[in-house]
Write a structure and sequence with these properties.
- By secondary structure, the chain is α/β, with parallel strands linked by helices.
- The chain has a single domain (about 45-150, about 165-205), classed as 3-Layer(aba) Sandwich (Rossmann fold), CATH 3.40.50.150.
- Helices cover about 35% and strands about 15% of the residues.
- The protein contains nine helices and six strands; from the N terminus they run H-H-E-E-H-E-H-E-H-E-H-H-E-H-H.
- The protein has helices at about 5-15, 20-25, 50-60, 80-85, 100-110, 140-145, 155-160, 185-195, 195-205; strands at about 35, 40-45, 70-75, 90-95, 130-135, 175.
- The strands form two sheets. It has a four-stranded parallel beta sheet with strand order 5-4-3-6. A two-stranded antiparallel ribbon has the order 1-2.
- Strand 4 (about 90-95), helix 5 (about 100-110) and strand 5 (about 130-135) form a beta-alpha-beta unit.
- Helix 6 (about 140-145) packs across helix 9.
- The longest helix is centred in the first third of the chain and has 15 residues, at about 50-60.
- It comes from Helicotheca tamesis.
């Protein structure tokens, strides 16, 4: 810890000319970074690796051959990073409503979406050829494609022409990296309690 616990002392301790332990191991003394949305803590640099590893790997390892993965949320890019570590994954669709969150994370949390150490990937995980990032409402996305449809109306010829089979392929694994269930806001309640949305997730699984 830098002496006197000041920003000036911190920067001085990283100066290579003073031969300090901190200057020889700067990766151990990076500033702590935290992400807040609407005043609620979402992520913290001290827990990034452990949190996202435990969020992703149990589900993917429990599947015998996960090829198609869906991520709900995940704006920091760390969940996508962990998914792309699995070489069985052929496509990962990440649906994040907040495009600004993704761009600011690239700017200020670059190590969280860094895939440069993954063979065959890109420096920025979003640019990995297996990644398909959509900036839209994940709830609407799943309900529109996999929700229960009681309508007996036939699709028009125009709708049939626009039909993209890949859009309706099911997922081997779906990961929720959005708001925590204890957050008392309406959107969080939809994510974890809305039966229509939960049914669409069930229908979207292989």
């Amino acid at each position: 810890v830098p002496k006197h616990n000041t920003l000036a002392a911190y920067h001085k301790s990283l100066d290579p000319s003073n031969g300090s332990y901190e200057s020889q191991n700067p990766e151990l003394y990076k500033p702590v970074k935290a992400v807040y949305l609407d005043g609620v803590l979402q992520s913290h640099s001290h827990g990034d690796a452990g949190y996202h590893e435990s969020l992703v790997h149990p589900g993917l390892f429990s599947h015998p051959n996960p090829k198609r993965v869906g991520i709900i949320g995940g704006g920091e890019g760390a969940t996508l990073r962990e998914v792309l570590k699995h070489d069985t994954v052929e496509k990962c669709i990440m649906i994040e409503i907040d495009e600004l969150m993704v761009m600011k994370s690239r700017e200020f949390l670059e190590e969280w979406s860094d895939c440069s150490d993954i063979v065959g990937s890109a420096d920025w995980c979003v640019e990995d050829e297996r990644a398909d990032v959509r900036f839209e409402d994940a709830v609407a996305w799943f309900v529109n494609r996999f929700g229960e449809d009681d309508s007996e109306d036939e699709e028009s010829e125009e709708e049939e022409e626009e039909y993209d089979e890949d859009e309706y392929k099911k997922f081997d694994v779906i990961i929720m990296d959005a708001l925590d269930p204890q957050v008392k806001i309406p959107f969080a309640e939809v994510l974890y309690q809305d039966p229509t949305f939960l049914t669409s997730l069930y229908n979207a699984m292989t």
